[in-house]
Amino acid sequence: ILLLLISGLFIIIVLIVICIAFIKKSAALKKTALKITIIPILCWGLIAFWYLVTVPSFNKNEMGNFAGTYTLKSSDNKSFKSNKSNINGYKLTLFDDGTYLFDGHEKIGLKKQGTWKTGGTDGLFEFYDENGNLSQWASPYDNDNNYSLYFEDQNKQDAETILFVKTKFE
After folding, report:
1. Integer angstrom CA distances of residue 9 from 13, 16, 45, 51
2. Residue 151 burial class via C-beta count within 10 angstroms: exposed 0-12, middle 13-18, buried 19 and up
3. Percent above pLDDT 70 for the chain
4. What whole-number distance in Å separates Cα of residue 100 and Cα of residue 114?
5. Torsion angles phi and psi, residue 163, rounded to 5
6. Confidence grade of residue 140 (pLDDT, cut at 50, 70, 90)
7. pLDDT on residue 85
8. What does the alpha-carbon distance between residue 138 and residue 160 come to, in Å, rounded to a whole number?
9. 61: exposed, middle or buried (Cβ count in 10 Å: 0-12, 13-18, 19+)
10. Which of 144, 143, 124 is nearest to 135 (CA)?
């Protein structure tokens, strides 16, 4: 936002200087205005670099860190609580190429397979089904390389959380 404000301010300054240069018919003021345009161009270049190079690099690195096999650790979901014997059988495998496999109930909103990506709204992970439809979000947590994912059932009035913990690194 700061870079946009700075570039906007300097564009206004350039327009004012160019208007004055045309009114006074001054070549020196026109050259000064052209020199000032370097600042907004640099600001836009930094913004482009940030969103086209840096952010995708962070997201790819995060995908590599979170890739692995996760098992269901705990759940507020009543259907999971009533069936404790199967709770350890639910596995979620995230691959660093952006695909996933889910071995468990689709009640939490995840399809059996699909794609996932980092960098969603507020840092959430986004999970998509095979048709490219968004099926679920997860909150990632990294506590000293103890990776975990919290899923919330957004369709319920009282959001039920489901915790997957990384057990195997890919």
Report:
1. 6, 11, 16, 22
2. buried
3. 85
4. 6
5. -110, 125
6. very high
7. 45
8. 12
9. exposed
10. 124
Secondary structure, 3-state, the chain:
CHHHHHHHHHHHHHHHHHHHHHHHCCHHHHHHHHHHCHHHHHHHHHHHHHHHHHHHHHHHHHHHHHCEEEEEEEECCHHHHCCHHHHHHCEEEECCCCEEEEECCHHHCCCCEEEEECCCHHHCEEEECCCCCEEEEEEEEEECCEEEEEEECCCCCCCCEEEEEEEEEC
Using DSSP, state whether 157 is helix, strand or coil.
coil
Which tops the pLDDT comparison, 108 or 51? Answer: 51
The terminus-to-terminus CA distance of the chain in angstroms comes to: 38
- Quote the CA–CA distance of 7 and 47 in Å, as a whole number: 11
Residue type, 90: Y
CA distance 52 to 103: 35
Quickly count: other Cβ atoms within 10 Å of residue 71's Cβ: 18
In angstroms, the CA 134 to CA 115 distance is 9
> What average pLDDT does range 49-78 have in this prediction?
86
pTM beyond 0.85, yes or no:
no
Q: What are phi and psi of 160, to 5 degrees?
A: -95, 130
